[in-house]
Every structure is written in structure tokens, then in C-alpha cells.
Queue: 2 jobs
Job 1
Amino acid sequence: MISNTLRRLALAALLSFTTAVDAVAEDGPAKQLFGAQALPTVGAPQSAGFYAKGCLAGGVALPVDGPAWQVMRLSRNRRWGHPRMIALLERLARDSAAKDGWPGLLVGDISQPRGGPMLTGHASHQVGLDADIWLTPMPKRRFTNDEREKVEATSMLRGDTLYVDPDKWTSSRTALLKRAASYPEVERIFVHPGIKKKLCDSVQGDRGWMAKIRPYWGHYYHFHVRIRCQPGSPNCKPQEPIGADDGCGKSLAWWFTDEPWRKAPEPAKPVKPKVTMLSDLPKACAMILNAPGPKSADEVTYGAGAKVAQPAAAGTPATAYAPEGGDLPEGVPAQ
Ligand SMILES: [Zn+2]
């Protein structure tokens, strides 16, 4: 009978709900809770929420060293991402070394093991779909762990100006950005407005890829690759699609006015900064925080012979974390 079926379904839903509640972490400041995670969750990858307000399940690590990359600042433990992000970094490293004369990538922050807000730096990088890559080429030798902490990246700007130093910028850097933009899963690449201007002034021929290169504050010694929400992440909140415009017109000119660089006026009364709580993130994040992890990072390091969960195929519904309908909260920066 239909009513019996319904009752059974309702009971099943209730049971799974109870299990979920048991696994939910207690509320607290999100950056402290996620910053304390040493390892990811095991299982199918899923990005929950928005680039600047979310978390990551089933993250994998980029190996510390590869044939054409080295990960920097290992102590931060931010070499984690969605497997598609990590695969993309390996591919970019290989392709740019083989085809663009770029000797190898120095990789900065990707995400924390379970994503989420960070104790220092970055508004975004929370869902395993963002990665910073230095504009300094990889040296032939391997850096020591100590060097990976201390070596500084080189600014591409001329002194204190908003313009690229022509002695520092090279065509291989342009080729590296073009290569990164060539992959369909890459949706945006953030660079300093001075670097965008350099491309606008110098790129000949095909300029279609330049629509993905977006000017943003910072990003003068590294660029930031953002990929789109991946299949199997029903809670991943996409960013609005970019247009076809190369972005060299009015929108770029704005960056060379005073407005973006003006200091915010001091408030009359000191305002207490709002702390993002775990309960401000998508509901799935409380489960992801408490879900079981692997025994070691080696088990979940990409391409190192470890058995890493693969993303669900396109169209496959993901069920690991119940979808929740939260909208993007107000005030989330576009980056
Ligand atoms: Zn970044």
C-alpha cells in the first residue's frame, strides 16, 4: 500500500537524519575548527558552498614534489584540493614545461585538508577549487623544507607602481597564463591589474582566453587559478559566468583610478569584526568536519600510487552529504 511505503520512507529519512545529527560538529569559529584539521575526509570528493564560504570533502594532496612542480610553505598544510584541481595543477605543470618553456611550478596555497576558512590570509580557497601559483620559475634543484618556508617570490611590479616591470615580465609568463586559461574547467585566473594591463597591451592574435584573466588586488607575485564547481557537488555554489569580453576596456581602466586603492575611512566607533561560525557555513560542513579521515596523508596523496576517490561522473547524484538550500550570504567578496 502507498501509505505503508510512505511511512517506511519517512522512517528511513528520519533514521538517516538522526545519524547525520550525531556526526555534526559543535558550533564554533569556523577558521579555528577547519584550521585544526590535519587530514581530509575519505570518500567521494564534494565541494560545499562558495569559494569564500564553504568546505571540502574527499580532498586529496598535491605531492610535495613532482617532475615539474614543488609545493612551497609546507608548514601551512594547504596543499589539498578537489582531485580535479590537483589533476589540473599536475597537467599545467607538465604542459607548461613541455610546451611553454616554463621550468616548473612553485605552488602556493590550495586549500586546507577539509577546506573552510583559514586562520591567516585568503577570503577564498575554501572549497578546494582555488590554487595560487608563483610567478617565480621553479629552480632546477629541489628546495629544502626550510627554503620552502623562507624563499620569497618576486613581485612583477616596477617599484611601488601599478605597472609591470618590463625587465621582470617575460613571454614565458604570458604563455603560462594562456596555458592555464586554456583548460575548460578553469573559469577565472586572478592577477594584479598591472599584469592584466601588460597582457592587454602585448598579446597579439588570439585574445579569447584573456576573458578568464581577471584583475584583482594582490596577485603581483603569484596568480590564482579557480576552477568551476565539479560534478558530484550538488552543494557547490557557482560563480556567475564570465562574458566573452577580453576585459581590457573600462573595467580595467577603473583599477588605474584612485578608487580601488583608497583606504576605508576609520569608523567613528571601533567595530568588532564578525567571526564566521561553523553554523554560518553550509550545513554539510558540520558533517564534513566530523567525518572520518584516512590514517595518513600518504593514503590520500594524488597520483602517488594511493587509492584516491574519483569524482562522480557528470550527472551522477551525490549523496554523501545531504543537499542544503542555503543561498550565498551577502557580502561575500567576488574573489
Ligand atoms: Zn589565491
Job 2
Amino acid sequence: MADFQVIRTNDMPTCPQCGQAAALTARLPLGDGIDMLLCLQCDTGNTPAGRLVAILGLPEGERPMDLFGDFIVDWLHAGAAAHGWRQIPNQSSGS
Ligand SMILES: [Zn+2]
């Protein structure tokens, strides 16, 4: 399992773009730490974040939890890549 934290509480930070409470936040232990925020409003489309949002939009019982885990990892990879990191710690490349 990768060394990262995904945090979901009742007191989520707000999205800097739309001001809504974030759906998920994560902190990657890379460099000084990379804070990521998933917004149901802004993170849409065919991106790792958008696919995660699509799953979160489903009723709780209908979410494909196996995919959810994969999408979380994809999302974290995208966040790491956006900061110039090729992979997140303890996560082998490929699948
Ligand atoms: Zn937003």
C-alpha cells in the first residue's frame, strides 16, 4: 500500500476555485508535502479527478469500491506528476 493519507472529515477545506467544501483531501509525503483537494464541482471530465468525482456522485451502496481504490491511486499519481514526481513513495510503477 502506498504511503499516503486520504482524509475525509466533517470539516473539509474549501475549494479555492468555487468555495465548496472539498470531497476529499490527501497529503502526499513528497518534498515538503503535496496537499491535494478533490472538488465535486470543479474536478470533472475524463481525468483521474473527474473519474473519482463520478464515483463519489453515485449512491454510497452503488460505488464500485475496487475501482474507487484504483482511481484514488490514479488521482494521487496525477497530483504527484503535476509537481514533477514520477511516482508516489512505496508504489511500484505499472500495475
Ligand atoms: Zn471547486
